[in-house]
């Protein structure tokens, strides 16, 4: 049951929200460090002997964790999706999954300011946590929610798609692309333009671990052993030396070596 950096969390209740969406009420071991409304966490489950990690928002409020030591994940079956379907088919009362520490910066404004939430489908989950938290903390500012679903019956649809992260504007005139060597697999490839290291690795036949493909979940983090990359979200250049980079949002800036 022990996964490094993760905490065991026992399923206490499963609530069927709609035909394809369930809320799992979890009781993590007390060492779990908690979260702020709007954050997400990685969970890890073993399916057919292989550990799979996926990211989900905490849909409950931090108050529930503080008062009862419980958190909820509200999960929609993704057609063809491995983990979401496995969770729906297998995760029942008493079973244990691994829960990572919470992260993310979709947080409530402080001090209170007027808020407009715009959510589609299962993208409502962090907003649920926000709304419960606002109610519990007597949030003193107007709050509006625009919520979109596909059909009357379907109150949940997929929102967290893997859109390519937008290039930041200030990259014009910069050298993008370069020769990339994936050290462990002994593969070399090169790019001109804004292809990410993840795209390049996949085009070379590698299958690096990844999740969101948009710089959120950190599952694609890999060791860069040399060379400089540009973060396509911030436009920031990395240092030239050894460090961890997120493959999905890193564009080579000249020759780069990756420990993959
Ligand atoms: C920050 C964040 C928060 C999130 N919060 C929530 C939440 O609260 N609730 C929620 O329900 N979801 C949430 N998600 C989305 C959730 O993480 C995904 O639905 C989940 O990762 C899908 O995992 P899976 O194993 O079921 O699908 P995967 O098996 O990873 O498949 C993903 C998609 O790719 C397709 N696919 C898989 N393999 C192939 C292949 N070889 N060729 C072509 N297509 C393929 C599948 O059909 C599927 O459509 C969140 C995502 C992020 C990034
Ligand atoms: S795949 Fe999620 S951060 Fe890169």
Give structural notes.
It is a single chain. The two termini are 27 Å apart. The chain has helices at residues 62-68, 82-90, 125-136, 197-203; strands spanning 6-18, 21-28, 40-47, 50-57, 71-76, 96-100, 115-120, 143-148, 177-182, 187-192, 221-226, 229-231, 243-246, 250-252, 256-258. By secondary structure, the protein is mainly beta. The protein has two domains: 6-100, Elongation Factor Tu (Ef-tu), domain 3 (Beta Barrel), CATH 2.40.30.10; 169-258, Beta-grasp domain (Ubiquitin-like (UB roll)). It is built from four helices and 15 strands. The strands form four sheets. The chain has a six-stranded antiparallel β-sheet. Helices cover 13% and strands 35% of the residues. The site of flavin-adenine dinucleotide has 22 residues, from strand 4, strand 5 and helix 2. Flavin-adenine dinucleotide (FAD) is lined by residues 40, 54-57, 74-76, 78-84, 122, 125, 160, 211-212, 216-217.
Write the layout of secondary structure elements.
Layout: E1 6-18, E2 21-28, E3 40-47, E4 50-57, H1 62-68, E5 71-76, H2 82-90, E6 96-100, E7 115-120, H3 125-136, E8 143-148, E9 177-182, E10 187-192, H4 197-203, E11 221-226, E12 229-231, E13 243-246, E14 250-252, E15 256-258
Parallel strand pairs: 7-8, 9-15
Antiparallel strand pairs: 1-2, 1-6, 2-5, 3-4, 3-6, 9-10, 11-13, 11-15, 12-14
Bound molecules: flavin-adenine dinucleotide (FAD) and FE2/S2 (inorganic) cluster.
Residues 210-213, 215-220, 246, 248 line the site of FE2/S2 (inorganic) cluster (FES).
